[in-house]
């Protein structure tokens, strides 16, 4: 049975699409301004008042889309550092080197590197934020997990390799440099991580 | 020339010591309450008003000892997680395993593990806090650096080993689990770190 293209009140599909587009544009505007404020002031520094002022979207409209400040912030966080490329053309070693080089570059330049500690801080006190942070980390670790799984599937590294453990071993030292010791992530460190992981995952098979 | 034991106004050495002791007690009380509040509310959540209320020490007195809120917080931070034991009795492998087991235990239980993200967050915006955070990390990494240096001195691991790199490789994955992926630091991960570091630092000499 064909679904009528017009409602009883004459709202056409084209009109519905225009409304959807406008709603989508409002959401995108609010999220973009929220993201900018997150990078500038961190998770705890962002207020709905300031987002409304900057975006020109009324507070009531913002609250219609996101019932709480936390929900809006978490939605904006999910935009942080996405679009990580996953190389799948090379060997485990070249793929891993490419991913870690990319992560190191982002850690030293991307806006989310400045925001993340404020999310981690909020996570210590708010289980909802902690859940989202864990999810974000799953997204950021996905390229490492993927190349481990591919390399296992190709028979290149040991079957049963725990990709989560490899992610901790590969990303942990880079994160340590960026956020804890606040030292430059030098190529020698990347080299050691790649070499040692390759050796420990291919040896003793 | 002997320094007079009494001042013109008759303040005895014993009196001077009593004053010093009282001053010291005030400082200790304020720092202890600041530390507790840091663990509870994080770096940005602590106010001098609340510290004064809890400690019973007047705000004017607090400001006489620490000219700014930041100086007081940084002073309290320097108490975080100190007294790390440095094992120096075993081999590089047994010493490293003991240090990492100890760190893993502290990461999952110590109060400073909850506070650190708030300090990291403040570091992103305040260079003075960043300097203190780097210093704190130097203190926390000291046991790893020390056992690397000792093992090099004994000829057990490769000469010229960069202890800072080893600290990043050893501690990074544990920190990753505690603060980023928020997963348990399981003994299998500790095992892999110790085994791989030992192999990469003793091989190919």
TrEMBL record, chains A, B:
GO MF annotation list: DNA-binding transcription factor activity; transcription cis-regulatory region binding
SUPFAM superfamilies documented for this protein: Homeodomain-like, Tetracyclin repressor-like, C-terminal domain
HTH tetR-type domain ranges (all copies): 24-84
Renumbered residue ranges of the record's region Disordered: 1-20
Keywords: DNA-binding, Transcription, Transcription regulation
Domain of life: Bacteria
Protein name listed in UniProt: TetR family transcriptional regulator
Organism name: Cryobacterium zongtaii
């Amino acid at each position: 049975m064909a679904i009528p293209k017009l409602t009883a009140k004459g709202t056409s599909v084209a009109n519905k699409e225009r409304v959807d587009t406008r709603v989508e544009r409002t959401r995108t505007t609010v999220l973009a301004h929220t993201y900018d404020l997150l990078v500038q002031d961190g998770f705890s520094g962002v207020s709905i008042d300031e987002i409304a002022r900057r975006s020109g979207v009324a507070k009531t409209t913002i609250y219609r889309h996101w019932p709480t400040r936390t929900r809006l912030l978490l939605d904006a966080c999910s935009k942080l550092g996405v679009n990580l490329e996953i190389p799948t053309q090379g060997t485990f070693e070249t793929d891993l080197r490419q991913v870690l080089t990319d992560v190191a570059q982002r850690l030293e330049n991307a806006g989310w590197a400045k925001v993340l500690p404020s999310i981690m801080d909020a996570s210590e006190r708010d289980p909802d934020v902690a859940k989202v942070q864990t999810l974000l980390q799953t997204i950021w670790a996905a390229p490492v997990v993927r190349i481990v799984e591919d390399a296992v599937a190709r028979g290149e590294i040991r079957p049963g390799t725990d990709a989560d453990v490899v992610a901790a071993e590969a990303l942990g030292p880079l994160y340590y440099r960026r956020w804890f010791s606040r030292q430059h992530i030098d190529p020698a460190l990347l080299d050691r991580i790649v070499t040692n992981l390759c050796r420990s995952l291919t040896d003793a098979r």
